[in-house]
Amino acid sequence: MERIVILSGAGLSAESGLGTFRDEGGIWSRYDLSEVATPEGFARDPAQVHEFYNARRSNAALAVPNPAHKALVRLQSSRDVFLVTQNVDALLDRAGARNVLHMHGRLDRATCAACGETWDAPDVMHPEDPCPGCGTCATRPDVVWFGEMPKGLDLIEERLGDATLFVAIGTSGTVYPAAGFVDIARSAGVPTLELNLEPSGGVFDAGRYGRASRIVPDWVDEVLSRIR
Ligand code: OAD
Questions:
Q1: 33, 142, 184, 189 - which has most CB atoms within 10 Å?
Q2: pTM of the predicted structure, to 2 decimals
Q3: Does residue 53's CB lie within 6 angstroms of at least one atom of ligand 1?
Q4: Which of 172, 194, 195, 208 most suits a substitution to test ligand 1, by most atoms within 8 Å of the C-beta?
Q5: 39 lines ligand 1 (CB under 6 A)
Q6: pLDDT tens digit string along 62-93?
Q7: Domain ranges of the chain
Q8: Which CATH superfamily is domain 1-17+65-104+150-228 in?
Q9: pLDDT of 4-39, one tens digit each?
Q10: What is the spatial distance between Cα 88 and Cα 220, in angstroms, rounded to a whole number?
Q11: Which CATH architecture has domain 19-62+107-143?
């Protein structure tokens, strides 16, 4: 029985019009990561951080899933596929994917830094928004910042160790722990495949390169054409 674990990154959503981080003109060439994506940056200037995520939330809400998202949903509907994404957009979910593990959180969710309650984020968040649970004005986007622990790591490691194939799609492999998943898979004897615009530099058993909207559907068609 096939058990496929897929890790996706910003390249999966690039053709939906959402910018990547480290490509030319990417998000981290326009914004200072330490100001907008760290707990220290939020403590210094919560209004600036909310402004950054409010703009990203609005872009993500306007974006639509592309053929790569849809192909992964097709694959999940007839194979055992565990989808892990570093993307804070909800394009996989909106394409119809089930049980997506958002290891870096989601733009469309909010959380309270004081009590940990989570809820659907409004379109625009402000530093003075009170938590619907405890009333404290410490609400923040439910995204994982640098220096914080990504979500679901135990489950991801468990599924990686038990997989029959690990696939990384559209990620540069620069941010840990996600960048280390390929090594965890390889150590467990799991075959590894990279689907990316260009080789990321990670050690994969195989790679296919090009735009996600083309190479992901092609790969999915191949997998689905194989008799189980
Ligand atoms: P990056 O911007 O680092 O990498 C994007 C990858 O997608 C690169 O390898 C590109 O070559 C590839 N790519 C670009 N366009 C593509 C396309 N049309 N089709 C296929 N591949 C394409 O983004 P991530 O690896 O996702 O974390 O970044 C990882 C984490 O760093 C993010 O989750 C975020 C960021 O800082 C946090 O904010 C915590």
A1: 142
A2: 0.97
A3: no
A4: 172
A5: no
A6: 999 999 999 999 999 999 999 999 999 999 99
A7: 1-17+65-104+150-228, 19-62+107-143
A8: TPP-binding domain (3.40.50.1220)
A9: 999 999 999 999 999 999 999 999 999 999 999 999
A10: 23
A11: 2-Layer Sandwich (3.30)
